[in-house]
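Cont'd.
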Amino acid sequence: MAYDKFNVLVSRVVPMSAENVDTDQIIPARFLKATERTGFGDNLFRDWRYDSEGNPKPDFVLNDPTYSGKILLAGKNFGSGSSREHAVWALYDYGFRCVVSSFFADIFKNNCLNIGVLPVTVTADFADEMFAEVEKDPSSEVKVDIDAQTITILSTGRSETFDINAYKKENMKNGFDDIDYLLNLKEEIGKFAEKA
Amino acid sequence: MENKTLFDKIWDAHVVKSIPNGPDVFFIDKHFIHEVTSPVAFLGLESRGVPVLYPEKTIATPDHNVPTIDQDKTIKDKLSRMQVERLRENCQKYGIDLHDLGSDHHGIVHVIGPELGITQPGMTIVCGDSHTSTHGAFGTIAFGIGTSEVEMVFATQCIMQVKPKKMRITVDGELGKGVTSKDIILYIISKISASGGTGYFLEYAGSAIRNLSMEARMTICNMSIEMGARGGLIAPDETTFEYLKGKQYCPKGEDWDKAVAYWKTLKTDDGATFDLEYSYDAADIEPMITYGTNPGMGIKVRDMIPTTEGMEGSEKKSYLKSLEYMGFQPGEAMKGKKVDYVFVGSCTNGRIEDIRSVANFVKGKQKADNITAWIVPGSREVEKQAIEEGLVAILEEAGFKLRQPGCSACLAMNDDKIPSGKYAVSTSNRNFEGRQGPGSRTLLASPLTVAAVAITGTIADPRDVFEN
């Protein structure tokens, strides 16, 4: 599915320092019953965000009006567990375009790149500084430049480069997905399948 | 010729094209689908106006969301019903083989694949489910994918993958009494952590692994994802061939001999190198249980919950938050804690051997009054066998409730939910917050330990119960 092009993003940051946040927390299984890809943002972090009666829990970061932005700053090992792409759909639908962490789970990271949410892996030290800055000033902004492969904390000027393979980078910049690419290889794939 | 690992051999044989500084175009031999992660992929196909390229390479079954009672009746939950109906419509429209609810081979996708012999050594297998790693037990590269990738497989039989690094985990020696393959994998995850396998594909080796049955190997490979690895495999051997021989989808006659001759070449060459290696002694492994909210938080049943010594910052905060959710204190003993539910089932431990081990353990005993005991076979075939072997009668006598096949309380998408605040000792694979229902508290263990818990009503070491 096509998604928004990603070039330069300058945004405030929503901090969530919990480690090992699994995809069951990002979107609990009972909300995977849809047959279409819409409305998942409403149930993003459902059980951390709302109590059992559906009232917002005031101490959860998404319910705290102090914080907003298109960048989610997450703790170590974000997105572990289930392969549900719904987790990324929920983040995207809610409005996040970039997730920053010192460590991502594999399938989650792949899923992000497939639907246009940029996963940026930073050093633990850089993540700590981001957490500190957003705590000091929730309106402080971070700049993510995919072409330069840099992430910069604008208030301190500290910058780091991040990895993304050249193929995925082009896809993200143009809003392309893998199927467009694969469909053009049909002949080669056909030959391979005959041989196999 | 260079020395290759088993993983390299299978991977390299499936690369259609390598993109410089990018992923490989990776060919998929078998694609399993279920009702939850496929509908949006089918919608994608429709909007692009492309067909399923090789429908015969995809196999479907509804498992995640199906009720485990009254499967012959219309599904009550509207959304669940819609997903199952959509799967039927899509399979019919695109000519995909469906093992539907109520049919002879319905079941959890990772149980029926091996059971039918669809899973065979040397294959690449994907499914929109992270426990696809289960199939690695047969010497396959099998892993979970997202829905965008499900659509890619439909449209082109390929996905784009960067080749992971390689890790070998060797377990040598003899397992002690009451120690099972579930304990091996919970032990490994407790050592490597819930993220220690991230970026790697695993190979399990060593005499303790070789001596395991196929069912037990599947339990190990199934939980590879619980340390963050995409998958894990075990080289096929006589045990594998013996298991597969005569299975419905396996080659027959001369073709079988040819297949076995090829399968015998599927092993890591001497001198092949891994990016990372771990070795463990089977004698150090004891019955295990988890106490926290990720599968890396596991200890021996007879041990104490670790204290926060040496932890600081967000690690300590996350650790304490996890224990708070579970209602446990650092330094406490696990044994003797009261439990409310036991759940035997899932793609990890819902096979006939698992049900046998529980039945043998509880035979002639009664579950404790405070325990609700659910047993959910992984497939219709498992259910049938359990009835024929008299296991169901034994289990019902002991107070267990037998349900119909499906993923059930492992992820609680259907009505099989553990109530908020209650403790469930489960043979499943994830102890995440709310995994078995909002507010539920899950402790992962082997079928044998779960049986011991069911009888005593508290967290128990099966070896102690044996002695009594």
